[in-house]
Amino acid sequence: MLRYRLASAIVLIPVILGAVILGGPVYFALALAGLLVCGYEFYQMAEHAGYHPYPILGLALVTLFVWDAYARTFSSRDILSLALVVSLVIAIYWRREGWIAGWALTFAGALYIGVLGAYFILMRSLPDGQIWTAGVLLTTWATDTAAYAAGHRFGRHGFFTSISPKKTWEGAIGGWVAAIVVMFLFATIAGLAPLYSIGLGTVVGLAATFGDLAESVLKRQFGAKDSGALVPGHGGLLDRADSLLFAGVFAYYSLVWALHLALPK
Description:
Number of strands: 0
Low-confidence stretches: none
Number of helices: 10
Radius of gyration: 19 Å
Shape: globular
Mean pLDDT: 88
Oligomer: single chain
Distance between the termini: 45 Å
Helix content: over 70%
C-alpha cells in the first residue's frame, strides 16, 4: 500500500505544483478537471447506495462555482438560486422514487465539492498566491502522510473511531506536527511572521484532519469503502482531495486575515 501511495505522489505532485506555478487557464483547467472527477465519484457513491441524484446538474454546478471563483463574472448566489428553482420543477415533474433525497444530494455534492474546491482558485489569486497555494497543498499532504505513518507506527489510542476505526490520536498529532513544520517553512520564506506561520500550520492541519473525517462520514452513509479506484494506494480522487476541501477554506480566510487583505467582491 505504501509503495502505491509513493508512486501516486511521485506522478501527481509535480503535475499539480507545476500547474500552481503556471496559474491562469492551466491551473483552472486542472483544478476543474480534478473537482469534476471528485463530483462524479460522489454521485456514483450516492447511486450505488440506492439514491437518485442528478449528476449532470451537479457537475454543471461544480463547473459554474469554480468558474465564478476564476472569472468572477456572476454571483454564486444567482447560480444556486436559479438551479434550485429549475431543478426542483424538474424533480417534481419526474417524481422518481426517493426524488427529494436525490435532489438534495445533487446540491449537497455540488456545494461540498464545487464551493469548497473553488477556494483553491481564490487562494491562487491572492498576492504571492502561487506560494500560498503550494504551501497549503504540501502542508495538507504532509498532514495526511505523517498521520498515516505515525498512526501505523505508534497508534494506540482511538481518535473518532466511530467514524474511522483506524484513526488514532498518535496519528492525528503526528499529522498536526508535520503541518506546523511544513507551513512554518513556507510562510517564513513568504515573509509571514513566525507566530502567524505556526497558527496557519495549525489551522491547515486541523482542517485537513476533519476534512478527512467528513468524507469518512459520507462513505459510511453511502456504504462505500473508497470513493473510487482512480488513484493507486488511495482509492478515488475524492479520497485524496477530502482533506484539501476543508483545508483550502480555512487557509484562505486565515491568509486574508493574516495578510490584512480585502475579500474580492
